Amino acid sequence: MSYADGLLVSGETVLRREEQHWILPFYIAGRWVGIAFAVFVVSLLVNWLLVPAGGGGFLGTLAGLIGVVLALVTVVTLVIALVGIGWAVARWKSQEYVLTNQRVIHVRGVVNKESSDSVLETLSDAQIDVPLLGRLMGWGNLVLMTANEAGNARMLALRDPVAFKKAVLEAKTARMIQLGGAAAAPSALPGAAIAPAPSAALSAPRAATGAPTARVAASTEEVARALTALARMRDSGAITADEYDAKKRELLERI
Predict the structure, then answer these.
(1) 44-87 tens-digit pLDDT
(2) CATH no. of 10-23+95-161
(3) Considering Cα of 82, then 84, then 89, then 93, what sign does the dihedral take?
(4) CB within 10 Å: which end of the chain, N or C, has fewer?
(5) Distance from C-alpha of 8 to C-alpha of 123, rounded to nearest angstrom
């Protein structure tokens, strides 16, 4: 069981797990490798420019000293680069991004574990940032904008930020409908069906009186919340305009 699984509360289920791309440790620690390579090239140039053809004289001695210093700096930089890559890999392996039916959990830390979460009801928007390297290698950054004091949640180098964003929006819609008292999540949400709320079963059958099944009317406020959530899904591309219109008609009939 992962560390994030131990943070789940009663009734909370995991909908999706997302990982960071393998390029991230090398992207973070690669600067040290670049510095070591640059120092090595400078060392070669210094020796080539300052050492006379005979290899002696003041310039030759000076170039030799500079070459030794640059060689030491190169070795130290390479050692730092290797340690940095190892530490970056350990941090990469410790990262967990978990979407549940109630929140988005982010766990990090190699020795000391830290966790933060964004409650689905507080999410206002989600933005994707895919740099050039991400487009070439298939990763991107996702920022979840929230209304709480903790601020926005930034998720770096996700393997599939688009799919994770859609999953978050769908989970939020299902959560808002559940909290609003609707009978079930929209049919366009795969795998996100919500059990009828006890206080407002919109499609529950009538008592055993022999009468045909009828839908209980929903309040205007409940339907308005559901339509707002559906409109956001339509605008984000999670559902089509036709699916939105069909579900809108269904909800308006319950008023």
Answers:
(1) 776 676 655 445 566 667 767 777 787 787 788 778 878 888 88
(2) 2.30.29.30
(3) positive
(4) N
(5) 19
